[in-house]
Design goal:
Helix content is 40%, strand content 14%. The protein has helices at 3-16, 28-34, 47-76, 92-95, 110-123, 142-148, 170-182, 199-204, 224-229, 240-246, and strands spanning 81-85, 103-108, 130-135, 158-161, 189-193, 233-238, 264-269. The relative contact order is 0.13.
């Protein structure tokens, strides 16, 4: 599944080339090129496939901007621990400005972290905070591995699960949230992306084997805010469409049905 992270890097690289880019990710091009997705990858077959691909790419851009803003707000509020779950080719440790004393943990399996390390070495990239990689499968004892790497559960943490939960079955999502909660001091923050209702039917039904959409298994619950309250979080849900409009990047197509808030989540631990 980690190869999909290279595809996300390609989307971020393309966004970074725009004059009106919502963010700049200088390393994204290097990740995409090393993964064989630059300068271009094979185009999708048919107009419907092209539209779906554009919609997914647009969503990646909007969620990246949303979580960037959340991380800046967390840093401004004094949070100095960041945990990226399923970090993939995330380069926030390198592309964002971090206050002194920030520790950023990247949790993922060894394969993507090793691939990433080779690219970072070749690019001579220098992190702007203390960056700590934690090689562990999220289906295993990742809290233990995170603790061994130096994460302090007594201090507030900002947790990011970007483009991750859609690949996990519901019971695994609930377990992940329980484990996050057990290591979250009061004042911790949480940023999540959730698959909107119906997205698997729309995108996954005829997805090519091995593609990202073919591996999607879970969508957001009927009441994301209530669901997170049950896990101890005071959450606010947003729709991708409304966030896109707020960023000056409205979706070009009309929604097929009313979208429920919850595709993008920000939450605080009380």
């Amino acid at each position: 599944m980690w190869a999909t992270a290279v595809g996300v890097a390609r989307v971020r690289a393309l966004e970074s080339e725009r004059e009106d880019a919502l963010f700049r990710d200088p390393l994204a091009h290097a990740f995409a090129a090393a993964g064989g997705l630059w300068p271009s990858s094979p185009p999708p077959d048919g107009e419907a496939a092209r539209r779906r691909r554009l919609a997914v790419s647009h969503s990646i851009v909007i969620r990246t901007k949303f979580l960037d803003d959340l991380l800046r707000e967390a840093a401004a509020s004094g949070v100095r621990q960041v945990v990226l779950l399923g970090a993939g080719m995330d380069s926030r440790a390198f592309r964002m400005d971090w206050p002194e004393g920030t520790r950023l943990f990247e949790v993922d399996t060894a394969e993507p972290l090793d691939f990433k390390a080779s690219v970072l070495c070749r690019e001579r990239a220098v992190a702007r905070c203390e960056r700590i990689t934690v090689a562990v499968d999220l289906r295993e004892d990742w809290p233990g591995a995170l603790a061994a790497a130096g994460h302090d559960p007594a201090a507030p943490t900002v947790w990011i699960a970007e483009g991750l939960l859609i690949y996990l079955p519901e019971d695994a999502v609930d377990l992940l949230l329980a484990r996050i909660g057990a290591r979250s001091a009061a004042g911790s923050l949480l940023g999540l992306t959730l698959g909107s209702r119906g997205v698997i039917e729309r995108f996954g039904a005829d997805a090519a084997p091995g593609s990202a959409a073919s591996m999607w298994v879970s969508e957001m619950p009927d009441d994301p805010v209530g669901w997170l309250a049950g896990h101890g979080w005071e959450a606010t849900g947003h729709t991708l469409r409304r966030r896109a409009a707020a960023y000056g990047r409205p979706f070009s197509t009309s929604p097929r049905h009313e979208e429920r808030a919850g595709g993008l989540i920000s939450a605080v631990r009380r």
